[in-house]
Structures are given as C-alpha cells and as structure tokens.
C-alpha cells in the first residue's frame, strides 16, 4: 500500500483559535492504491513514475515562478492589497446594506465560494466583532428573471456595486454594468454614482479602465499576468469579501501556508500529489472524470469554483508544442449526502471512468443532536445519541469504503473545520495543483481559447461591428441543421 501523504502541524491562523495547532488540510489517497481497490489501484512502480513526473513538473513550475510568470503565487504574501480592501470596508460598511458583485467566471466564483462557506457563521472577522456587515450578492448570470429579482431586492442608495472584469470586454458583465450605471444615475444622480461604485479591472487596458479614467471612478487592479480563475486572493476576491466582513488576513494566512508547503517533498506535498494522482488516473487508468464531492453544504460553492479552475485550465485542444491534445479530466460536482441518493448509483456500478474526491470537515461549526427517541424500534434506535455531523461524516467514510470495495478509486481532502484560514489553504493548494497538472498534461493551464468562438458568435448575433461574418456563419450553420429541430 502506498504511503499516506503526511502533513505537519500548522499554526492555526487568527480567527480559528482552538488553543492548539492543527493541520489545515489532509489528503488521504489510500483508496487509490492497489491494496484498497485491487487491479486498477496505484502500484509502487506507478507511484515512482508519478513521483519522477512531479519532480520534473515542480522544477518547471519553479523556473517559471522565479521568472515572474506565475504571479498568483505571490498574492498570499501581498500586504498592500488586503490593507486597501480593509480600508475600503471601513469607509463604506456603515453606509450600505449590500455589496453586489457584477462579474462572471473567475471574477465571481472565488468570492462566492469563500462567502458561501463562511456566511453560516456570521462570517465576521472575529467573534468579538459584533457589528453588522452588509450582505454579498453575486450576479454571475444575466438571466433576466434572476438579475431582475436582484435589482428589485436592493435599495441603490444603500448598495455598493463592485464591477469586476479583467478584460473589460465580457458582454455579460458589461451589460449588467450598463443597467446598474443607468439605474444609479436615474435614482441617485450622476454625482452620487461614485459613492456606490468600485471598478476592478486591468491597470491599463480595456474599456472599463477608460471609463474609470474618464469619470474618476474608484478602481482597483486585477494584477497583470493573473487570469480570472487564479484571482481570488487579489482585489478581485478580497475587496468584496472584506466589505462583507470576511477576515482577508486569515484567508491569506492560510493561502500563504499552502504556498510555503508547496516546497515540501513530493510525497508530503498536497498540491503535487493531488495533481499527480489525478493525472495518473486519467492517463493510465482512463478516469476521465473527477467527481468533486463535498460532504458539507458550506463547501458546495467551493466545488463550483474548483470545477471552473480544473475544467477551464486543463481542457485543451493543443499541447504546448502545438501538437493535438484534447486531454484533461472533466470535473463534475456532487454533494454529500444529497447525491448519495441521486448520482452515487452511477459512480458505484456505472462506467469505470471516474475518480472521486471527497471534501470533508472533521468538525462542523454547529451541531444537531439526534435525540434518543423511538428506543423500541431497532431500525431507528441506533441513530439516537449521535449527531447529524457524525452521521454525515460516517456516511462519507462509508461511501468511500463502499466505492473502494467496488474497485472505484477515491481520495479525501479533509479540513479540520471550515474557516477563513482553512479555505485559504485549500484554494491555494488547488490552484497550485492545477498549474502543475497543466505541466503534466503538457498544456497551458493559464489560457482558455476554447471559449472564444462562442463569444464571437454572440457578438455577431448582437450586432457588434466587425462581427457580421459571425452572424452569417451562424445562420449558415443553422440552415444546415434546421431539419433536426422538431417544431
Ligand atoms: O478564469 C478566467 O479567466 C475566466 O473565467 C474569466 O474570469 C471570465 O471569462 C471573465 O472574464 P473577465 O474578468 O475578463 O470579465
């Protein structure tokens, strides 16, 4: 059986004090090994192959990092950005009830993941801080019913809007911005817009920067060289999170620790091992799908954030040398225990094309005891005296074991509990793992050329100048296929 990844005790960041030192994350990959799942499991020889590949990938990563090509790795140590975000929060929080983020993809998912995970615990910086914080609303879709309802539910005079777009060209975010700008102008007057708007975009390029410069709007920068899905620890994630009371310092402390731990040897390095194991199971064992399955509702949006990170970074048509790739591993989401009663049957007995990553927590921030009632019914009496958290964790462990006994590979990432520090650690670990995976698959994890064509068709259909050929091309394609539309 392969050696279990070891983790050392880490300093518990501020805000998660429990009087002791705790690991911020553990990775258990026993259920990927030959000993646990049989024929398809990882052998010692394969582990050694993976180790060599990871050692080489790590060297390439470090070479790129020292040349300044991976600036997302520096964000956890940046002290200026969190300071600016806290200042922003101090300036505005008393005057507003809600912060609305207008952004999509990497410009929205990070803040959404962290906020969703922390809001159930009042998400304030510390327990001593009893002040009310604004709520965060993230408009990451342009569905007119959803966006319309969001608009109806806010009072513009008590709302702060953070428009986030690195390119400044994203049709969804820009159309939302146009709606909001017009609404602010009509309800509060042109001069008051400045008190309700922060624009986060490229420091120099794009139409949003032009608008900032022309109107002297408050702005922050998306750091050059950091793609949307790697920006959660830049002003993109930190500004809205700070404004709603998340301890951005705790978040960054966890991320910094993950960055430091990234220098550990391969078998003790969670980011490397997460990348290497999934790569090996994809390429050697045909597990083209990775199911990310949190067993904590608080982590559901973290899984959404991961899905974008993994899929947009690794699904690529071309290798770095230009040869055809078409590789990668499709990440999908399931939530325990809900999807035990929905998707699990397929994972247990369907095609053997999946690997599962459970995301668990040791301790829940709130508990519900199951009372010792119905003692005379042995079908129920075993539940009494336990708690719902215990049941949830036993279900996770039981499911992992059942999958393993069925020869289905799975691993588990466990956080001691959900908190800003543990989330920071998890997110940075997964970002590092994603870039390492790009090296293993020999693709560029930092671009997303595959989403461009659809955007161009949209521009054509919306009548953007210079894209009339795309609307022509669209209509041509439609006429070829129209006989398949059942009316
Ligand atoms: O990860 C990415 O790069 C993308 O998901 C972008 O964040 C997304 O397309 C939004 O782009 P922008 O920030 O330019 O509006």
Overview of this protein structure:
The chain is of the alpha/beta class. The chain has 2 domains: 17-66 and 264-441, 3-Layer(aba) Sandwich (Rossmann fold); 78-246, Rossmann fold. The protein is 44% helix and 12% strand. It has helices spanning 34-37, 44-66, 80-92, 109-118, 144-152, 171-188, 207-215, 235-243, 248-261, 270-283, 300-314, 344-349, 378-381, 388-405, 420-441, 452-462, 468-481, and strands spanning 26-28, 98-102, 135-139, 159-164, 197-201, 218-221, 289-294, 316-318, 324-327, 330-333, 354-361, 410-415. The chain has a 5-stranded mixed sheet with strand order 1-12-11-7-10, with helices on both faces. Strand 4 (159-164), helix 6 (171-188) and strand 5 (197-201) form a beta-alpha-beta unit. Helix 2 (44-66) crosses helix 15, helix 11 (300-314) runs parallel beside helix 15 and helix 16 (452-462) crosses helix 17. The protein starts with 25 loop residues before the first strand and ends in a 6-residue tail after the last helix. Residues 1-21 and 121-128 have low confidence and may be disordered. The site of 5-phosphoarabinonic acid has 14 residues, from loops.
